[in-house]
Amino acid sequence: MTVMRKISGFGAGAMAFMLSACQPTYNWRDIHFEGTVLQAQLPCKPDRTQKEVTMAQSRVTLEVAGCEAGGGMWVVMTGRLPTHVDAAQVLNGWQAATWRTLQAQNPKSQQWLAPKVLPGAVRVSVQGVQPNGQSTQAQGVWAAWAEGDGVQWVNAMVYQTTIQGDTADTFFESIRQP
User: Fold this and answer.
1) Region 6-33: what's the mean pLDDT?
2) pTM of the model
């Protein structure tokens, strides 16, 4: 192999390394949900889906946006409940189901403060087990606020082997309803 081939091979490898170094682990993007003022940021390009679900004996369109970045899964879920439904009860039930799925024990909960949220908004962290048997850390926010003729609720989650506090803070602080 000639010296020029060795140099050009090294140059191509160095260029690929430099380009990959320029790719940020977290590429924060604003996301919006149709029919609501809810906004948030995800650290990567989200996949989206909608599904009709029953919550508190009411049909609700569950909107979900999520992606994988930095070795974790980042998800924002939202839906609108009729005004007669107890949003706190629905969010508590959703939270309990999440912890059961993760086989989580002893969630650490703190009040989550954000403009316009109804009482009972929380941020919770827990150690759990994914369905594939791997250990994971999870942090989530559950909140609701009056919007239009109903109550809009949100559940934002991050699942990682080891959650970096500053990126989780950025994620949860991005949730807003202007």
Assistant:
1) 61
2) 0.83
Residue 76 structure tokens: 């924002």
Query: Is 3.30.2400 the CATH number for 26-173?
Result: no
The pair of structure tokens assigned to 170 is 């950025």
Domain ranges within the chain, ordered by starting residue: 26-173
- Give me the chain's average pLDDT, please: 86
pLDDT digits 0-9 by tens, 82-141: 888 888 888 888 899 999 999 998 999 999 988 889 888 999 999 999 888 899 999 999
At 136, the amino acid letter reads T
CA distance linking residue 74 with residue 42, whole number of Å: 7
**Are 40 and 174 contacting, i.e. CB atoms less than 8 angstroms apart?**
yes
Name residues whose C-beta falls within 8 Å of residue 147's C-beta, 6 or more positions apart in sequence.
36, 37, 80, 177
Tokens found for residue 78: 């939202």
Are 63 and 33 within 8 A, CB to CB?
A: yes
Round to whole Å and give the CA distance between 146 and 144: 7
DSSP lists the bridge partners of residue 176 as 39
